[in-house]
Amino acid sequence: MKRFLLFLLMASPAFAIAQSNFQKGYVVTNAKDTLKGYIDYREGQKSPSSFVYKAEPNSIPKIYTLNDCVACHIDDRASYQRFLVNISLGSDQISNLTTQVDTTSKREAVFLQVLEAGPNVTLYSYADRIKNRFYILDKEAMVPDELVMQLYYKEGESGRLITNIKYARQLSFLMKKYEKSNLVNERRLANLKYKEDELVQVVALINGQQKLKPKFKQSRWFAGLSVDMANTKFRGKNPLAGADAKSKMSVSPMFSGGVDLFINPAIRRLVMRVELAFVKSKSEVTSAAGGNSFDQLNAVFTPSLLYHIYNADQFKVFLSAGPGLNYSKINNLVNFKYEKEILTDDLRKVDEPMELNKFYLTIPVTVGVVMNKRIELLAGYTVPTSMTSYVYYSVERERFRLGLNYLFGKH
User: Fold this and answer.
1) Over the stretch 157-170, which tens digit does the pLDDT of each residue have?
2) For residue 247, what is the domain's CATH number?
3) Do 102 and 199 fall into the same domain?
């Protein structure tokens, strides 16, 4: 199991690089020709500089760059248009700010992603390593204007952050121009955040439209049942840490459930998974010197990142990892009492009973497959982690997991 997980970890970059995600769409060339076909739409491709196009699923791919096309559309997923625009260079990272407003910019041809289009204005986004930006195009203009948001510290007042919400004033002008301004809408602009969801709502108001519901669900629920296999090991200066110590594996049912949050709902390759699991298991370690046993009821809360290293429509392969936050209740503890040397004025020996922590951290790693969009088969391994706080020895619990999850919701 451990070797298999290690192999998948090492191989996952190759899977990710090799796999493409061609979806129906079209490219508009410089000559205004519309080429229908398939576009490779990948995770994280928010502001691409080129597109990979196929006329047919089995055709040889061709790359269209900023010099070759003016627009690209991927059905039900994303749409991009090429513009020569001003791009602000001022950072929005707190650690990079000063008391001087950074008004530097560059003029460059880029693909802007269409977020909301209507009869009056169109909202776009563009992202690079510096920050995310939003652009607005008035129907009477030829080129979009950047919606400007600037952060800086007020001079003479250490730590006081100032936000220039010029973007709200820009939208207020358009709202008045197209006769959509009223007291309620102006109040909304006063508290408007520089975030996609809020800007889309305001642009929909300017266009006299209702905000469209997302075509793809942002999240899904899941529930499952697993077989949990666990054994206990002692490490350090303890009679049960000897070579002759034997740990009896405990096999128990594990009940789990949670929610998946999609980073890009249109692709669903990268997922933030939040899981809560319950399992009751037994522990028994024996050696020639004695033994130890206890019953353990665990509640494990695990936020993790799940990545589909193969992401076809009806079959997926994934790998996930994240910290496991354990709350443990121990019953029927039979301590192996041992003699431990402690240094005082004289050297003497004392008996000390064992105590296990109620809260501790584990690191579970999981691999699995998804079939027919509903059934998820998984195998997991939890790295041995100490459940005690002693200096001279530790008690560790190693876990293996085989399970099945059912994925709810529309896919």
Assistant:
1) 667 888 889 999 99
2) 2.40.160.20
3) yes
